[in-house]
Amino acid sequence: MAHQHSASPSAPDAARRSERSRLAIYDAALALVAEVGYPKTTIEGIAARAGVGKQTIYRWWSSKADVLLEAFLDLGEQAARAAGQEPHAIPDTGDLAADLKQVLRATVDELHDPVFEAPSRALAAEGVVNEELGRRFVAQLLEPSLQLYVDRLRSARDAGDVRADVDPRIALELFVSPLAQRWLQYTGPITYDYTDTLVDYALYGLTPR
Amino acid sequence: MAHQHSASPSAPDAARRSERSRLAIYDAALALVAEVGYPKTTIEGIAARAGVGKQTIYRWWSSKADVLLEAFLDLGEQAARAAGQEPHAIPDTGDLAADLKQVLRATVDELHDPVFEAPSRALAAEGVVNEELGRRFVAQLLEPSLQLYVDRLRSARDAGDVRADVDPRIALELFVSPLAQRWLQYTGPITYDYTDTLVDYALYGLTPR
């Protein structure tokens, strides 16, 4: 921290002001996209709602997609911390089923959180019809969290708990995608029982053993 | 057919005209929702594009959601016939894996069909942020086709090919939802190899046997 004190006396205040502005911009961006949708959300609108100048936003980000991407990353980290988890890890207790069930239950909670729901839906809807945006958010937001499942399934494969010929990137979709589809398309209720069942079916299969 | 001949001489012509109008209205509705999205699609716009009076549409349907619902049902039936399938059945050859793979391969073809893609994406996107529309289209369009998998999995359960304690309505999501998510969110390529793999993973599980 010594290098901070070596800056001008006003630096800590400026850093606090910047941090407040950054969080206000995230809040404004998430609220706007939830209320008016992605196409009608503008940098001007975000700036007005956050109470900052448009140039403050352009100094830190080059587009509304960039602002929203970082706002969502921040939201995901907040949610993980609120759930008492490391933002970027799936536990490895040695019990694969239990570890996957725990993470999916936390995801169920997150999907039911109104702070998360409206902006996420607005952005997911835009991604369905706007391939460039869809691919960008998947690459930067969704895929990194799916890779955590890849890591966990690889370590399970190394431990002999998953078959050697299983592709972890496809395997994770057996329990992640059903939950995503129920959330996106209202195809069924989202509960702990449901995600526990998905994990059991995926790990042990539908056919008799 | 005798009762048709007992009608007035102009009845067959009127029926042909009605059928032509109905198909023109479906085409117009699907094209418009693909081009301008669901919120900006109107009965007036559909009528103008189909070359029919607004009252013709209101005589047969009560809302744009109703028109689109039937247009999609018709599109699905056309696609099934083009793929050489009965529109409302999953084959039961006694080989569950082969039957599921065949139907999912046909779905892969349908998802790659540009006639299907743009209007389906526009409607799916609207359903993500418009819960009433989303639930309605799921209930009337998606759920009936999912029930075909329920039927096939039930008969497999009766034949001892699926465990007795498996809930078929959840089980089908292990291979249907990953394909849906890759299509909706651009999370990965959609190929026959991919859907074949999903079926194998779901039926035999990820853990060693």
Structure description:
2 copies of one chain form a homodimer. Chain A is mainly alpha-helical and 209 residues long. Chain A has a single domain (2-204), classed as Tetracycline Repressor, domain 2 (Orthogonal Bundle). Chain A is built from 11 helices and no strands. The first copy, chain A, has helices spanning 2-5, 11-36, 43-50, 54-60, 64-82, 96-111, 114-129, 131-158, 168-171, 173-185, 192-204. In chain A, helix 2 crosses helix 3 (43-50) and helix 7 crosses helix 8 (131-158). The longest helix of chain A has 28 residues, at 131-158. Mean pLDDT of chain A is 90; it is low at 1-7. At the A-B interface, helix 7, helix 8, helix 9, helix 10 and helix 11 of A face helix 7, helix 8, helix 9, helix 10 and helix 11 of B. Chains A, B: Keywords: DNA-binding, Transcription, Transcription regulation. Chains A, B: Residues 42-61 bind DNA. Chains A, B: InterPro entries: Homeodomain-like_sf, HTH-type_TetR-like_transc_reg, HTH_TetR, Tet_transcr_reg_TetR-rel_C_sf, TetR_C.
